[in-house]
């Protein structure tokens, strides 16, 4: 949900992983709120061998989006979930249009896609890989 980032007073330090106390300070939320939202909004967090939560920058941005929706825009939890689902769907559609409409990727243009199921499966795998690579590239750009 990169394009839906929320401005915060404190910048996010240039680190790969953050513990819950650091995230609580950055987001100005209590740790119990973060733990509740982790379950409620299905955040997939990494954990250490000792079961400590490890947040990444994308997780912090997702938390800040939830905070904005709930606290600033006065959404209910159900409404925030629905809005986030809509935003993710819109972002996926934008990514797909970039893949298929890009003149640089003629191999992936609409004209080149065949109708066989084998080719469709390969195309969806390529799209997933490209999406993941774009995500990694965006994460790397944040560290500059």
Task: Give the topology.
Elements: H1 20-27, H2 31-40, E1 46-47, E2 53-54, H3 57-72, H4 77-101, H5 117-142
Antiparallel strand pairs: 1-2
Helix pairs in contact: 3-4
**Count of extended strands:** 2
The side-by-side strand order for the widest beta sheet comes to 1-2
Rounded to an integer, what's the Rg over CA atoms? 18 Å
Q: What ranges have pLDDT less than 50 throughout 5 or more consecutive residues?
A: 108-112
Biggest beta sheet summary: 2 strands, antiparallel
User: What is the ordering of alpha helices and beta strands?
Assistant: HHEEHHH
The portion of residues forming beta strands comes to under 5%
Average predicted local confidence, pLDDT: 81
Which descriptor suits the 3D outline? Answer: globular
What is the straight-line distance between the termini?
Answer: 20 Å
Compute the number of helices.
Answer: 5
Helix content: 55-70%
Class computed from helices, strands and strand pairing: mainly alpha
